[in-house]
Design a protein that fits this description.
It is a single chain. This protein is α+β, with helices and mostly antiparallel strands. It has one domain. The chain has a three-stranded antiparallel β-sheet with strand order 2-1-3, with helices on one face. 3% of the residues are buried.
């Protein structure tokens, strides 16, 4: 049985270090950007995330892409 993934939505997530808590541990925050084209290449999404990251005052820890889709029987 063959199964195909039908893309539905995609978002870009930038994780930043947003200071430290009372115990001195780093606090992380995620900034999500929805409505990323599901057909957009990963390199293009990363380039946009880097451009946004350069505008941040806090250190960027990571960049990720989260894709949602439906699995259908082919």
């Amino acid at each position: 049985m063959a199964v195909n993934k039908v893309p539905q939505a995609s978002k870009m997530v930038i994780t930043i270090e947003n200071g430290v808590n009372a115990k001195g541990q780093p606090v992380q925050r995620q900034r999500s950007y929805k409505n990323v084209k599901v057909s957009a290449a990963d390199t293009d999404v990363y380039a946009v995330a880097q451009a946004i990251a350069n505008l941040q005052t806090h250190a960027v820890i990571g960049i990720s892409r989260q894709d949602d889709g439906n699995l259908v029987n082919a």
